[in-house]
Amino acid sequence: MLDPSNPNNYEYTTKHLEIHILGGLKTNKMESLRVTLSIQKPKQYNVVRQSIDLYNDNQIEKLVRKVAERLEIGTSVVRRTLQELTKALESYRFLLVEKETIANQPFYKELSATEIKQAETFLNSKSLLKKTNDLIGKSGVIGEENNRQTMFLIFTSRKTNNPLHCISLGSSGTGKTHLQSKVSELIPKEDKVEITVLSANAFYYFNRTELQHKLILIEDLDGAESVLYPLRELQSKKRITKTVVHKDSKGNTKTIHLTVEGPVSVAGCTTQESIYEDNSNRSFLLYIDESEEQDKKIMDYQRLISAGKVNEDEEHKAKELLKNVQRLLKPIRVINPYAEYLELPQSVFKPRRTNSHYLQFIEAITFYKQYQREKQYDKETGEEFIETTIEDIQEANELIIDILLRKSDTLTGACRNHLENLKDYLIKNNQTTFTNAEIRRNLRIKESTLRWYHKHLLAENYIHRIKKAKSKSYCFEIVDLGEYTNLKKQINKALQDCIDKIKGAR
Fold first, then answer.
1. Quick one: 488 exposed, middle or buried, by C-beta within 10 A (0-12, 13-18, 19+)?
2. Residue 332 DSSP one-character state
3. pTM score
4. How far apart are alpha carbons 36 and 25 in whole angstroms?
5. What is the predicted pLDDT for the residue at 65?
6. Using omega within 30 degrees of 0 as the cis cutoff, is the peptide bond preceding 263 cis?
7. In what order do the strands lie in the sheet with 284-287?
8. Confidence of residue 188 (pLDDT cuts 50, 70, 90)
9. Burial track 149-162 (b if 16+ CB lie within 10 A, e otherwise)
10. How much of the chain exceeds pLDDT 70, in percent?
11. CA–CA dist 83, 100 (Å, integer)
């Protein structure tokens, strides 16, 4: 008798009455059944419209008399029809609630035996990190070999008790968001939360454990400025709590605590490094490759897509395999028996937090290789754990050296990139001095941007102003062409010294 095919206009037709339920049913208040009814006799135009709670007996009786009088029909017929309608709507509402509950349940893919075997074989393979990086490339992530692998391992760390975080930095249009979104496609859908814009209090209204061990992706930090504080708290304290005033069903005012548990892994993109310093201190900073070589790789790939020469089936298979690999990884404690031998280079700024990130990154690599590690058990607690190997530390050092290099630099990423481009230009042209006009013309940089760069380089004593011999004009000269190379060598040596200490102590 009830036809709910139109969700905004249910129909209920009997021999004596035709009833329309305008606006459908609300499923958020089960203690009432408030609807808007349009009641008439079949094939007649005299209509009674009324908003009513079908669980309210007094309202029902008033409506029965009103309909009986207006439509000239017996009250017993109207009363019986409304009772039957209430029962039909009640049953259909329970069905709607059940469908909503099923739809809102988190999605968990059940892997087939073949998928499990493929993923296990991959996780047990030699040179796992190299094979993973190759597979990331096959999935459609072009270039950025170090960044993409580091980002993948950071995203994997969401399953550990101490997840890592990252911020992708670079100029507008260089592919920060693209890199993050492409690597995040390798993470199962059920393990990530993607954010474009979120209100300041939205984070406090997730279910208590809804975000646990999730990857939170922020497309642009500028669009999520209001949630950066609760995000920082989630990163540091692994939980956030907000106290609010709430009225219960009896109208009494109560104070309640809204708590959301972590840990979470957070990833975001921005062009403005200095503005998000508090978030940067908690994260790995991944600087996008803006070189001409990377531009060529991306444009070649774009041409192949346009020509229909990209094997989309191969890309899909690579993505699915990496997602299944992620699904197989289980939480397990990681112990690094060599941690006491690991020291950061003295040049690194804010070493306390960076040292923690370095150790966590090594643990993330060990965690990813859990299928290749012998499971051990704590004699006192019986807790299961795996141990880090020297190979894990060496692979971590190879990936993290660029991050430590940036952490040791007094310049921002954009300013450092400009200085290195400047050095390349001078070496290529066999010059030692340069002018603003020359650099602006040859490196194609806006005047305001160039002035900002050179102001900072002068303040940090990376360049100095000198007077031309035959004129009254000034030009600039780089103080030390090899300072960045030397810094990289110092960091390399410090990391290698740690490996040598470990090997000597064995």
1. middle
2. -
3. 0.79
4. 9
5. 93
6. yes
7. 192-195, 214-218, 264-270, 166-169, 284-287
8. very high
9. bbbbbbbbbbbbee
10. 96
11. 26
DSSP character string of 103-163: HHSPP-----HHHHHHHHHHHTSSSHHHHHHHHHHHTT--S-HHHHHHHHHHHHGGGSSS-
CA distance 110 to 317: 17
Residue 385 Rama label (left phi>0; alpha psi -120 to 50; beta): beta
Tokens of residue 277, six digits: 């310093």
Lowest-pLDDT choice from 140-154, 202-216, 217-231, 258-272: 217-231
CA–CA distance, 116 with 65 (Å, rounded to integer): 67
Find all residues with CB under 8 Å of 410, minimum gap 6, and list them: 460
**CA atoms of 363 and 334, how far apart (whole Å):** 6
Distance CA 292, CA 300 (A): 12
Looking at residue 279, its pLDDT comes to: 63
DSSP code of 31?
T
- Three-class secondary structure of residue 351 per DSSP: helix
β-strand partners of 12 = 2, 19
State whether residue 308 is helix, strand or coil. coil
Task: Please state, in angstroms and rounded to a whole number, the distance separating the CA atoms of residues 172 and 193.
Answer: 24
Provide the residue type at 318 as one letter. Answer: A
Length of the chain: 506
Per-residue pLDDT for 503 more than 80?
yes
Q: CA 5, 8, 12: angle at the middle one, nearest 5?
A: 60
CB 310 within 8 A of CB 470: no
pLDDT in tens, 438-448: 888 888 888 88
Return the percentage of the chain with pLDDT > 90, whole number. 34
